[in-house]
Amino acid sequence: MEKEGLGLEITELRLGLPGRDVAEKMIKKRAFTEMNMTSSGSNSDQCESGVVSSGGDVEKVNDSPAAKSQVVGWPPVCSYRRKNSCKEAATTKVGLGYVKVSMDGVPYLRKMDLGSSQDYDDLAFALDKLFGFRGIGVALKDGDNCEYVTIYEDKDGDWMLAGDVPWGMFIESCKRLRIMRRSDASGFGLQPRGVDE
Amino acid sequence: MNYFPDEVIEHVFDFVTSHKDRNAISLVCKSWYKIERFSRQKVFIGNCYAINPERLLRRFPCLKSLTLKGKPHFADFNLVPHEWGGFVLPWIEALARSRVGLEELRLKRMVVTDESLELLSRSFVNFKSLVLVSCEGFTTDGLASIAANCRHLRDLDLQENEIDDHRGQWLSCFPDTCTTLVTLNFACLEGETNLVALERLVARSPNLKSLKLNRAVPLDALARLMACAPQIVDLGVGSYENDPDSESYMKLKAAIKKCTSLRSLSGFLEAAPHCLSAFHPICHNLTSLNLSYAAEIHGSHLIKLIQHCKKLQRLWILDSIGDKGLEVVASTCKELQELRVFPSDLLGGGNTAVTEEGLVAISAGCPKLHSILYFCQQMTNAALVTVAKNCPNFIRFRLCILEPNKPDHVTSQPLDEGFGAIVKACKSLRRLSHSGLLTDQVFLYIGMYANQLEMLSIAFAGDTDKGMLYVLNGCKKMKKLEIRDSPFGDTALLADVSKYETMRSLWMSSCEVTLSGCKRLAQKAPWLNVEIINENDNNRMEENGHEGRQKVDKMYLYRTVVGTRMDAPPFVWIL
After folding, report:
1. SS (H, E, C) B76-106
2. Which of A17, A62, A79, A183 to substitute to test the interface with B, most B CBs within 10 Å?
3. Domain boundaries in chain B?
4. CATH 3.90.1150.10 is the classification of domain B1-40
5. A43, B207, B528, B557: which has the fewest C-beta neighbours closer than 10 Å?
6. Which of residues 64 through 93 in chain B touch A, CB cutoff 8 A?
7. Which domain CATH number covers A144?
8. Mutate which of A48, A88, A101, A131 to test chain B, going by most B C-beta atoms within 10 A?
9. Domain for residue A120, yes or no?
10. Which of B118, B109, B110 lies closest to B140 in space, CA to CA?
11. What's the domain count of chain A?
């Protein structure tokens, strides 16, 4: 049997002595050529960073977080699950900008990028656009006269009335938004105004 | 040989239902082969390219139920290009031409088109059951044909498919006369759902036992649905998102209380966790709970729910449950048989959500555990040894340490000994996936002890060809071997060509196998299809002067009785 093709010299997988720094390990990577994003795995690139491309040789990549995230198809989670969990991750991460917005009476959630608004006025306008309904903007600016109230869930899981805290503080702590009917708001358990974080 | 008339033997065969057993019966003698094939109604085909529909129908003319699997397992992880194959249309066309009385069709990882669904719906008068798992290529228009044309439809079960949702009215395509539904699962549909049509459908389906809704079905609709289907056994909740007004919530609670047959709960795709308590009254009946898509249910809400589920046999959960949460599971769910813990953070955040401690706790608390899929950040040999001692009954053991090549985090040793303990203790082990730092030694153990092993998934493991050889030589029952990013090459591949006749398939990607090695294998084994998948370098292999030594990126080989397939795309070479 021929020995060529074994290429033992490139299969270095060094075993460290106990206590040795794990960073010494190398992930053995084959020549990952760039995936053709349109024909295959096109959903994966929403969640994973790009694939390392190279020539024909085996690449040794140091065991770093960046390298890890570039391994195609790893961890072995099926693409359907990946897509669905990415949706959650992208939209519920605090500070990432995107939050879910729900409105009473509308069966669909919307998602919006808080980071694209500069202040509460911008937000009011964006919400109006999102739901095609004038009233929300008014609710935000002139709370008491409107059928709806705009509330948000903060980092601690508490629901607060939007508009009370400075904008910067708001976008940092807002996890999601809800446009609620005023009639439902009274029994809801909103945190009282002016409560400190 | 035969002391009884054929009818009697056939009657006896009716009691033999498993595919394995029926296959065994057919090998006993010619007469039994003949009786068996005319009485066989259910056929399972693990690889749609191993045989063709014409031969299938020649042998089993009385076919009523067909299960077909297409793409190899690693297609789930985007390692197989979409156009690779696995098309169901030729099968449906052949079945339609033969006028066989098809009633059930189950497909996994196949390409299904609207055209094939339409043909299916029109060709088989008694068609009852369609189950599609991880399939793609169709839209809700295809579903509309099934709804409209299958008069006796019992099951429409869509699991984790990629379906182009045209937001049409497929649900309203069920005629008013359709009252036979038992299973309706459309959880994977992304678009809006016609709630009125859905409610009417559920209301006129007294036999409905399994209902799995998609995201677009909000909580108030759920309440109404449950009120018209109190007989429900298996429920997939869609959107649990909006905090309901008190009236909707009250209605939901009332409806849930009436669902005394409810045994299985899933979904919660978008969840307001504090509404979970509405389900507490029926939790003590639950045998199956799937919260693996409910990213927002964690912490105390999750624990409280689980504490009510004392009869749970199957639990699918996210790792946000944490080791502490798993300890609660261990102390509550004494009937647990299957556990899957999925990673909630796929972007490599490095949160140590579950560790070896959770796994050990489960193994200690749940004596009936036989199947596990566990994604974690770290593992130790000691933990695996303990798990093996606590649970020697594993049939399926899949452990995925998120970081490739990670050693025992306490001793920095490879995890060979830990997995060795598992295969040694679990004499009924049929499926194994391992991970972490592993040398050839683990394969020595697998070859030596894993006598019942049928499926093995290897990634980033081993040192030399010896590793793969231990497995090929030792595991007599091996059916599916899939390997990625491991240093196994031509020597191992070619050592025992006849082994592949006893296996369904072998996948090797990013290994050391060369083109000439594959060619030699194909020459020696004409009954194998040896496929090279080469999506991006169509010409590279030919131009390169050292063509033979060129390493093959992806190789997939499988036994077949029908030779080379004709539907392979240009980037797949069949040697």
Report:
1. HHCCCCHHHCCECHHHHHHHHHHCCCCCEEE
2. A79
3. 1-40, 489-574
4. no
5. B207
6. 74, 76-83
7. 3.10.20.90
8. A88
9. yes
10. B118
11. 1
Distance CA B370, CA B379 (A): 19
Q: What is the DSSP string of A137-152?
A: HHHHHSGGGSSEEEEE
C-beta separation of B435 from B405 below 8 A: no
Nearest beta carbon to residue B485 from set A18, A30, A63? A30
Q: Report yes or no: A36 at the B interface, CB cutoff 8 Å.
A: yes
Q: Is residue A157 part of a domain?
A: yes
Q: Does B485 touch chain A (CB under 8 A)?
A: yes
Q: What's the complex ipTM?
A: 0.87
- Residue A171 domain flag: yes
Residues, chain A, total?
Answer: 197
Is B513 touching A (CB cutoff 8 A)?
A: yes
Would the CB atoms of A84 and B343 count as touching at under 8 Å? no
- Note whether residue A53 is domain-resident: no
Distance separating alpha carbons of residues B243 and A104, to the nearest angstrom = 9
Domain that holds residue A148: 98-184
* pLDDT in 10s for each residue of chain B, 575 residues: 567 888 888 888 889 888 889 989 889 999 889 988 988 999 999 999 999 999 999 999 999 999 999 999 999 999 999 889 999 999 999 999 999 999 999 999 999 999 999 999 999 999 999 999 999 999 999 999 999 999 999 999 999 999 988 876 899 999 999 999 999 999 999 888 899 999 999 999 999 999 999 988 888 889 999 999 999 999 999 877 656 667 878 888 999 999 999 999 999 887 777 778 889 999 999 999 999 998 878 778 889 999 999 999 999 999 999 999 999 999 999 999 999 999 987 765 555 589 999 999 999 999 999 999 999 999 999 999 999 999 999 999 999 999 999 999 999 999 999 999 999 999 999 999 999 999 999 999 999 999 999 999 999 999 999 999 999 999 999 999 999 999 999 999 999 999 999 999 999 999 999 999 999 999 999 999 999 998 765 555 554 555 668 889 999 999 999 999 999 998 899 98
- Put simply, the answer to whether B414 touches A3 (Cβ < 8 Å) is no
Q: At B484, is the secondary structure helix, strand, or coil?
A: strand
- From the list B484, B494, B535, the residue facing A36 with the nearest CB is B535
